[in-house]
Design brief:
Radius of gyration: 19 Å
Shape: globular
Number of strands: 5
Oligomer: single chain
């Protein structure tokens, strides 16, 4: 991007940062935003919210780091130039997604999904926060683009989301995460049906999953549980542990606190 090593973190730079539970479609949304809207710069794939915008000139920087939804509590309310989009997705799809780099394990679990969902709920009344659904994105990308434009009026559209593959040039990391650059479709929405033993195991471990599906509008009732009749729950390897790493999270929370203080000092200069 031709930026100085330190980048810019001034009050004049708006930042649109994408967050969400891993495997929820954040990479796709990032590619859509950076391809179809004007910006002064953007990260190649992912970067921490605490990393300064990698631009020398301009007024809008777009970035992404899914797990930052759990790390913005100190800075988001106090930075009027920070705007957040949270991408939500059916937890059954999230917990049955595998990363191409390791097809022998699942990438995420319900615990992590629930932590991200809980964190996102803190900001539901914040006007600089927009919660989207991956399912709406793939069903009608242009309508969702209009929703984004309506919330963040500083965005200037270049292309329609539905035409983004004609103009996209994703980084190698982004292309890998999305399994290549391809037209937006709904083919992945029901792939969780192919992983019912995984669903049954996660549901047995986390019964709240069934209520979450109703609360978020993915199911009207619990009739879908009939799909699990006769299915034996089976535990599989997963990138994220089932138990919260309490000590590591305490240490991370402390680091986030000090990073947040430096962030806030920087924007006040």
């Amino acid at each position: 991007m031709g930026a100085t090593p330190a980048g810019r973190q001034g009050q004049s730079v708006k930042r649109l940062h994408i967050v969400g539970c891993p495997r929820s479609g954040t990479t796709l949304l990032m590619e859509l935003l950076t391809t179809c809207f004007e910006s002064s710069g953007f990260c190649a794939h992912e970067t921490s919210i605490f990393a300064p915008p990698d631009i020398e000139d301009g007024d809008l920087y777009i970035s992404k780091q899914p797990n930052d939804i759990k790390q913005i509590q100190h800075i988001f309310p106090r930075d009027p130039n920070l705007h957040i989009i949270y991408v939500g997705r059916d937890p059954r799809a999230v917990i049955t997604s595998k990363h191409r780099e390791n097809l022998q394990q699942y990438f995420c679990n319900y615990r992590v999904w629930s932590e991200c969902d809980t964190a996102a709920n803190r900001y539901r009344d914040q006007p600089r926060f927009l919660r989207l659904r991956y399912e709406d994105l793939v069903a009608d990308p242009d309508q969702l683009q209009a929703t984004i434009s309506g919330r963040f009026e500083f965005l200037v559209q270049k292309h329609s989301f539905s035409e983004y593959t004609r103009h996209a040039s994703p980084s190698e990391q982004s292309a890998t995460a999305m399994h290549g650059s391809r037209d937006i479709d709904q083919q992945s929405l029901n792939k969780w049906h192919e992983h019912l033993p995984r669903i049954a195991e996660q549901l047995a471990r986390h019964p709240a999953l069934a209520n979450d599906l109703i609360r978020l509008g993915y199911e009207e009732d619990q009739q879908w549980l009939q799909l699990l009749q006769g299915v034996k729950p089976e535990a599989y390897p997963c990138r994220y542990p089932e138990r919260r790493p309490v000590l590591k999270e305490w240490e991370r929370g402390l680091r986030v606190y000090y990073k947040s203080r430096r962030y806030l000092r920087a924007i006040c200069r």
